[in-house]
Amino acid sequence: MSAPVASLAVLSHAAGCRTHCPYCAYQCGVVMSQPGGGAWTVAGDPQFPVNNGQLCIKGWTAAELLGNPDRVTTPLMRTAAGKLAPAAWGEALDFVADGIRRIRAEHGPEAVGLFGSGALTNEKAYLLGKFARLAVGTPHMDYNGRFCMSSAAGAGNKAFGIDRGLPFPVSDIADAEVILLVGANSADTLPPIMQWFDRQKANGGRLIVADPRRSATARTADLHLPVTPGSDLALANGLLFLAIEERLIDEAYIASRTVGFDAVRSAVLTYDPPRVERITGVREAALRTCVRWLAEAEGAMILTGRGPEQQSKGVDTVLAFINLALALGKVGRPASGFGTLTGQGNGQGGREHGQKADQLPGYRLIEVDAHRAHVAKVWGVDPASLPRKGKSAYELLDSLGPDGGIRGLLVMGSNVAVASPHAGNIINRLKSLELLAVCDAFLNETSAEADVVFPVYQWAEEEGTMTNLEGRVIRRRAAAEPPPGVRGDIDVLREIATRLGAGDKFAFHSAPEVFEEFRRATAGGTADYSGITYDRIDREEGVFWPCPAEDHPGTPRLFAERFHHADGKAKFHAVTHRPAGEEPDADYPLYLTTGRYKEHYNSGAQTRLVGTLAAAQPRPRAQLHPHLAARLGAERGSVLVLETRRGRAEFAADVSHDVRQDTIFVPFHWGGRGAVNLLTNPALDPTSRMPEYKVAAVRVAAVRPPTDQEVPA
Ligand code: SF4
To answer: Is the pTM of this model over 0.85?
Structure first.
């Protein structure tokens, strides 16, 4: 679908408006301008110290979303004939409020669910959580960040007492002597971050990449560990076994800054190199090189991505890498430590302020009485009136429909029909709802099932704050005027809340108004934003949380002196390897793993609309090794019909030596017959409730030549 860039009204930004890219957690600074009042252009912002003017192809082309002809500019309502048709705002808002009221009256507030997004600004994420608890009164509020960051968050909270993806600015990467990157393909997913890896290399540093594929990032590494999908925990324990055996651990650091190492020492005793080699496929020599490089470096980092995290043992896997970093004495030292590379645009802020089923703003917990009391006071309600903990994202979606108990759903900024594991099940459940309302700027596979679609502002049209992968709170600034007929999510929530009788709690007309209440709600919490103001963000190029007072400098680096547990110590956790929820067997003999293309973002709901990106990557391909392709009788471009216990989907074969012989890799940016999430396994981590996107057992049910429409141009 091509996307010509239409002219939009200029908001007197002749010299360009500084804002941020709409997509990933790197949140590159961009300068928006409209030369001659014509099409919008996006350039990298050389002043923003995270990307220093660099952008990836998604950022360069982001202006194509503005004025895109597929934009929804009027509310849509499902007609008796089953079509979505334009409606007046008042009619659509009344319909949704009436629906919520009716479902509540007949089945209780728990029969209504809310589903948010890691793409929402902090203000909107905060307000949506408040809307669920006060305006609807339901506990069932969760968001798609559960699918992205929850395992790393769970591990960070357990080990350090705080969940901030990177506890240091990305610029520290340049000074790390050694970096172990586990299951992250940053060269494709966060290209501008590679400037820091390039500097690290220029400074004499070494990069180790653990990944089942020889990804674009792995190709730049000094050492590549081609792990079996789902075996990362065994890899980490095996490295710690060797660190202990070779006397590389930092006993003084362990004694002074941590608790719980003895249990971990016992737990890794059985992770000798032959066993680890069997589980992970990584040779002993490579294991020994890896751990020696890490241990001998003054500053060494271990960074995880979704590979080790999106597993049914994701929390334990991340804890195993944290154990390794702690045992080597690397956490809290300069240009050193453990971090996770957050994925979604506001994946960090979105997980701090009440969108999660178990959480209240400021990273407070909904089951802790003191936390409930603080937030209830800010909201002016009785703490007892706040719902308790609700269902996590997949469990919420799997409860849609009469048999699950959730009969009405409001989705804000998330394409759950493509992004959810076992997507066929979720699409059927969306169809079974009595009320599905969606707020989005464009139609997608989820809004295609909706009863009501509210057309809302998109990135460059709205104000608000985002929190990038470093924990730096930044400002999204409105550059373009929204098309007539479109409103902000804040307006939608206010209008529905008013119709539900809770208008006094949602009398906000702008993001800055929400931000002032939000600051008070976070005060004293783990993620304390109370000292952050829009002016400070402007002056300081962002402010790092925690920031508990306006004269507090913010916290770019955590853990130098103490960790966030009450005793100031980091906690080791004894964790052991266990198989994935589903391992290959005689019926489904291969591993299926999923990931991204550099041209697309998440479910592709935006990037598939950008002509340049759609042309560069028009469809998903299944990457497989030439030996496997030969066994199957497949060649490049053949159509592979992949099948798991949950469904079947079709992909063009991408034959490559860059993937293990037992593994097929497919990107997840598409719906329809090319939706890999029709195949993925919703096995959940017991702590984070993260689904196991990265490991499923798959078979190739058929190989056929492509039709004329399927042959690439
Ligand atoms: Fe930067 Fe991410 Fe946007 Fe690419 S998608 S320009 S890396 S923020």
So the answer is: yes
